[in-house]
Amino acid sequence: MVLDSIKNYGLYANITERLAAGFNFINTSDLLAIAVGTYEIDGKAIFAIVQEYDTKDEKDCFLEGHTKYIDIQYMVQGTEMMGITTKGNQKIQSFDVDKDYTFYEGETSYIKVGAGMFTLFFPDDLHRPCIRVGDVTKVKKVVVKVQI
């Protein structure tokens, strides 16, 4: 798991060409103006999901993981807490192989992710996004899915 400012994306873009393409989308798109939706970058190998939502109570947020994709989660506007942990002996609640997610039960540590910051979640990283910081607020986030 990585948490950093988008200013430092170059430290991670050279890990793979696909990560570089994902960071390129983030850095060359007008993310304040872009509409909510899914945007192909390289077919199913790399695509971006632009989201807008209200943050929630932790009890309403899911601990999730992925096996086929790395997530770049870039916070365009707003701030949220994310629960984080690595895969271990967490109990699986549900999964969808085609949509590449598994929901887990488990404890997490917390990070605060504000505008201009991004996280990288690899297959061993579990994350619980969308948690409110104080009052419920609106967030705009881009999740770039990078196929392994």
Automatic annotation (TrEMBL):
Domain of life according to the entry: Bacteria
SUPFAM superfamilies, sorted: Clavaminate synthase-like
Gene3D superfamilies, A to Z: YhcH/YjgK/YiaL
Family matches, as InterPro entries: NanQ/TabA/YiaL, NanQ/TabA/YiaL_sf
UniProt-listed Pfam families: DUF386
Protein name: YhcH/YjgK/YiaL family protein
Source organism: Flavobacterium kayseriense
